[in-house]
Amino acid sequence: MTADIFLFWLLASVTLLSGVGVVLVSNPIYSALCLAMTMVGVSAIFATLGAYFIAGVQMIVYAGAVMVLFVMVLMLFDLKTEIATFSRGRISGAIKIAIVGLLAGLIAGTFAMTTTIAGKPETKEKAGHAAKSLGELLFTKYVFGFEALGVLLLIIAIGVVGLARSKGGTHAKH
Amino acid sequence: MGESAFEIAINCVKLVLVFLLMVQMVPVLVWLERRGSGFIQNRFGPNRVGPLGLMQLLADAVKFLTKEEFVPKAATKLLFYAAPVFALLPGTLAFSAIPMASPLKWGEHTFLIQGYEIGVGIVFILAISSLAAYTILMAGWGSGNKFSLMGALRASAQTISYELALGLSLVGVIMMYGTFNLTEMIHAQEGAMQFQAFGFTISSSLLPNWGIFYQPLAAVLFFAATFAESNRLPFDLAEGEAELVAGFHTEYGGFKMLLFFIGEYGHMMVASGLMATFFFGGYNIPWTTTEQVYQWALGIVGSPDWASALSSAVHFAMFFAKLAAFLWIFIWVRWTLPRFRYDQLMDLGWKTMLPWALANTIITAVVVFAVSQTW
Amino acid sequence: MQSIDIFGQIGLNHYLILSALLFVTGMAGVLLRRNIIVLLMSIELMLNAVNISFIAFGKYMNQLDGQILVFFVMTIAAAEAAVGLAIAVNIFKRYKEVNIRFFEHLKG
What is the pTM of this model? Predict the structure, then answer.
């Protein structure tokens, strides 16, 4: 067993376990911390796949910003224990789990049946150059999507500020 | 990590050494902080135990270790204990990515004097230090105390607000050097000032080739943002003794408190090391290149192995001198400036530093593009 | 079907199965949990699972396009989280309630 294989199994199990933790833990704050752990694991998986820059961005954006927001909001609410964690109904719950399990089995089975799509990749690009070509691609082929996302972010920023200001807040003027 | 077992072992040893270096710096910094504050406020500071009060560190360590271990009744035990341990992580991991001296070439092996080399060094450091907010939140919420929680919410809001200005101020630096790699950045800052513009080479022996002369605004913004990131005065709203007792670590005492201390000083060390690396030539001696120092060392000791070792040692000393200078500025500022009000802090972050960082990014992009054209 | 050494060799399939399992975990969260914020987190989990398969495909087909798509997904996920959280905070401020069942009937 080489280091790469060991790393994959380690990261995969950590990511998957903490992902399952998000769903199963009844305290939402532990859920959020589990999700943060998942994000870190996913970022490490990106790094093992050679996407170092994306791995860093994943960590900064998800683990460093989005999840911190989630945790902060949960702590503001201060829900120590939830009264009803899971949805009601045994039969509907069983059906939901069965559907999820079936979907998991189908997807996993499909991937397991198909042979590998492409052979082993043998390109050891230097990380810095990968980021450079990533930038070139972003500003040429995908420039429309990039601009559209910029507009989307602007709209969202305005919308969220509007929502947050609707009542009270630290800067309220009334 | 390395190809052979030998290299892997060396790398592991290096990681431990960097960690120990960081932890061992903390008592010295605490001493410096207390003596320095005494000096600034025209009083003595600790001077009873040992020469210059240096033994005070040992006394403090014993005091911290022998304090009573307790958990508040309302605390969430797991988070309460996990938070101080996590406090160590971001600082140490980020600090090990900073190159501290020129590589040591011994025989056929090359040892980098840093924890590990990472191609996208800056991104990695930003990513790791963005995890610091969790420590604060875990400590604040886990303590089960409203003052802790308020302090934690303030501190983490502050950290993620200033992360934007911090990251954006570095974009100009990245564009100028054209790399994410810290070692390449240090190489770009070697020697006396020299740069290419409109196809001409412009050089001046008056100034060293430091980043701060190309990116002064970025340097100021970055340094200010790191103060906020490490929750130091004038941005230590998290503590705000008068309002919040002591912020997120109100309930912590003894060794757990010490771990938070180490985390905070770790942040300071990372910030100082990054300032030196981005804007002040890293481990290079001003006006000289790494190669020149190596040649000088070769003239003294003769054998290439020992010359490499000597030049590494000289560079390490230089890096440490720069690090110490910035750490002293951190301490100096703490005992000079008063604390901000919370809305002032947020206004400064969002309405002043962020627009300036954006402007710096745009101007740098235009200038870098214009200068690369031939006249 | 020829026998393949599952544990001794890591291929594209491993990453895809990992991504599929993470995705259905997130989906189970959306179906089973009742806290709005946990629902939002489960959606983030699903988006992350998709990101893994993008990166894995990108690597094994030797293209960078997968990474660009991950960029886009991340941006949209961050925006979605911001809006979702703002709505959740507003609802909580008004009704002191985070249970999704409470909001079934969009009346008044």
Answer: 0.86
